[in-house]
Amino acid sequence: MTETEALETHLQELRRGTVVLACLRLLTTPGYGYGLLEELGARGFDTDANTLYPLLRRLEKQGHLVSEWNTDEARPRKFYRTSAAGARLATTLTADFARVAASIDALPKEH
After folding, report:
1. For the chain, which residues make up each domain, given as ranges?
2. What whole-number percentage of the chain has pLDDT above 90?
3. Strand 31-32 with 77-82, pairing
4. What's the CATH fold of domain 19-98?
5. Predicted TM-score (pTM) above 0.85
6. In what side-by-side order are the strands of the sheet with 31-32?
7. What is the DSSP string of 3-18?
8. Distant-in-sequence, close-in-space partners of 28: CB < 8 Å, separation ≥ 6
9. How do residues 44-77 score in pLDDT, each as one tens digit?
10. What is the three-class DSSP state of 31?
11. Is the separation of the CB atoms in 85 and 65 below 8 Å?
């Protein structure tokens, strides 16, 4: 494995949990998969459809998201939104993320 590949692997691991949190927070306003994918990218959470759609299904199965189909337009879309349980999870994850970020910031800096 090259140094670049190793770095990318570490960055993916670091970002994985942040995408869950970003989805829970962004979906307080209902959204559909592709639109969410674009919004995540625009906000610096690079992910792809092969990661996002299984994540949305998993969060829904766990009760953190709810969904409904919108058939008003030519192409039906499944809209997701954060449930009450998802909002509680987002609050907990946000607080823990802030704690971890502060702990990392307090570590010695690189030379």
Report:
1. 19-98
2. 78
3. antiparallel
4. Arc Repressor Mutant, subunit A (1.10.10)
5. yes
6. 31-32, 77-82, 65-70
7. HHHHHHHHHHHHHHHH
8. 81, 82, 87
9. 998 999 999 999 999 999 999 999 998 888 889 9
10. strand
11. no
